From TrEMBL:
Origin organism lineage: Eukaryota, Viridiplantae, Streptophyta, Embryophyta, Tracheophyta
Record carries keyword Hydrolase: yes
Native organism: Quillaja saponaria
Key words of the record: Glycosidase, Hydrolase
Pfam families associated with the record: Glyco_hydro_1 (PF00232)
UniProt name for this protein: Beta-glucosidase
Family, similarity comment: Belongs to the glycosyl hydrolase 1 family.
Single GO molecular function: beta-glucosidase activity
GO biological process, one term: carbohydrate metabolic process
Keyword Hydrolase among record annotations: yes
InterPro entries recorded: GH, Glyco_hydro_1
C-alpha cells in the first residue's frame, strides 16, 4: 500500500462568521488565543496522521486583499478609495491583521512543539506567497523599489519569522502605523517554522514611486513607494493567463528562491502552489477543453528553473502543482480553471485528465527518486 504525505492547511481565509461578528476577526488580538485553541484541537484529533501542518496560507493575500484593495472578504478599505468597501482604513488595518496573523501562527507553533511534535513526529510551517519583482530600469532607484516590493509582500512575514522583527524598510516607511512586537512575542516568532511553503505564480516590474512619498492618505498599497506594472515599453513581462494578475514569468521562481536562500539562511522549502488558469469556455467540446498545452509549457519552464535552483543549493524538498482539480476560484468563481484535471460542472462533477495531467504522470515516472 502506497503511503502519502499529508500537508494540511489550518487557515485558508475561511474565518468563522461568529468571530468576525463578535470582535472583527483578525483585527482583534482576541483571535490569537482562539486560533491557538482551534489549532490545538486539530493537532489532538488528527496529528497521528498529519505529518506536515501549515498554519496559514498566504497571510499577505488575506491582509492586502481583505483590508487594502477590497478584492477578498471582508472587503474593507478606506472610504476615499471609492471601492464600495464595508468600512476600514487601508493605512492601518492591513498591518494590524498581518500582525495578529503572525502572532496566531506563533501561538499555534508554540503549542504544537510543546505538546505534540515529539510524540506525533510531524513538522509545522507556514505558506507565504510572493511575486518576483523586476526593476523597471537599470537605474539604482528602480532596483531599490524592486527590493522594497519584495519586503512589503514577502519580508512583511518572513522578517518576523526569522528575526522577530519587521523589515527595516517597512519600519522606516510605515512608521507608527506598523505595530510592534513585544520582546516575548519576537522571541516566539523568531524561527517559528520547520519549513516554509512558497506559492509562486507571477512577476511584476517595479519602479520607484515618487508621487506617494509623504502621502496624506496613507495606504498599504502605496507605502512601499514602488509602482508595479506588467508592461515595459509596450511589451508584457510574459504571456497573460485568464486571471488578470497572472503573467507567466518562469525564471521568477528561481530568482525568488535564490533571494530566500541568500537573505533568510536557506530554509527548508516546499513549493506549495504553482500554476496557471484558463477561462472556462462552455463552447469548447470536452476534447478541446482537455488540450491544455500552455499549462504543460508553464510547468515545464517553471520546473526547469526550479531544478537550477536546487542544483545551486536551494533547499527545496517538494513541489505541488496548482491545482489537481478545477476549483471555485474565490471571486472568479467557476469562470476560470486551474486544474490539471477537468471537472465537468454540468455532468455530476465528473473528472477528466487534461493533457497536462498525462504529461505530469509521464514526467514523474521518468524521474529518479
Amino acid at each position: 500500500m502506497q503511503v502519502y504525505n499529508q500537508f494540511v492547511t489550518l487557515f485558508h481565509w475561511d474565518l468563522p462568521q461568529t468571530l468576525e461578528t463578535e470582535y472583527r476577526g483578525f483585527l482583534s488580538p482576541r483571535i490569537v488565543n482562539d486560533y491557538r485553541d482551534y489549532a490545538e484541537l486539530c493537532f489532538k484529533e488528527f496529528g497521528d496522521r498529519v505529518k506536515h501542518w501549515i498554519t496559514l496560507n498566504e497571510p499577505w493575500s488575506y491582509s492586502a486583499g481583505g483590508y487594502a484593495s477590497a478584492t477578498l472578504a471582508p472587503w474593507r478599505c478606506s472610504d476615499w478609495q471609492h471601492l464600495n468597501c464595508t468600512g476600514g482604513d487601508s493605512g492601518t488595518e492591513p498591518y494590524l491583521v498581518s500582525h495578529n496573523q503572525l502572532l496566531a501562527h506563533a501561538a499555534a507553533v508554540e503549542v504544537y512543539k510543546a505538546k505534540y511534535q515529539a510524540s506525533q513526529k510531524g513538522l509545522i510551517g507556514i505558506t507565504l506567497v510572493s511575486h518576483w519583482f523586476v526593476p523597471f530600469s537599470q537605474k539604482k532607484y528602480d532596483h531599490h523599489a524592486a527590493l522594497r516590493a519584495v519586503d512589503f509582500m514577502f519580508g512583511w512575514f518572513m522578517g518576523p519569522l526569522t528575526t522577530g522583527e519587521y523589515p527595516s524598510t517597512m519600519r522606516s516607511l510605515v512608521g507608527n502605523r506598523l505595530p510592534k512586537f513585544s520582546k516575548k512575542q519576537s522571541q516566539i516568532l523568531n524561527g517559528s517554522f520547520d519549513f516554509l511553503g512558497l506559492n509562486y505564480y507571477t512577476a511584476n516590474y517595479a519602479a520607484h514611486d515618487k508621487a506617494h512619498h509623504g502621502n496624506a492618505r496613507p495606504n498599504y498599497l502605496t507605502d512601499a513607494l514602488a509602482s508595479l506594472t506588467t508592461v515595459r515599453n509596450d511589451i508584457p513581462i510574459g504571456p497573460r493567463a485568464a486571471s488578470d494578475w497572472l503573467y507567466v514569468y518562469p525564471r521568477g521562481i528561481r530568482d525568488i528562491l535564490f533571494y530566500i536562500k541568500k537573505k533568510y539562511n536557506n530554509p527548508l522549502i516546499y513549493i506549495t502552489e504553482n500554476g496557471i488558469d484558463e477561462f472556462n469556455d462552455p463552447t469548447l467540446s470536452l476534447e478541446e477543453a482537455l488540450l491544455d498545452t500552455y499549462r504543460i509549457d508553464y510547468y515545464f519552464r517553471h520546473l526547469y528553473y526550479l531544478q537550477i535552483a536546487i542544483k545551486d543549493g536551494v533547499n527545496v524538498k517538494g513541489y505541488f502543482a496548482w491545482s489537481l482539480l478545477d476549483n471555485f476560484e474565490w471571486n472568479s468563481g467557476y469562470t476560470v480553471r486551474f486544474g490539471i484535471n477537468f471537472v465537468d460542472y454540468k455532468n455530476g462533477l465528473k473528472r477528466h485528465p487534461k493533457l497536462s495531467a498525462r504529461w505530469f504522470r509521464n514526467f514523474l515516472a521518468k524521474q529518479n527518486y
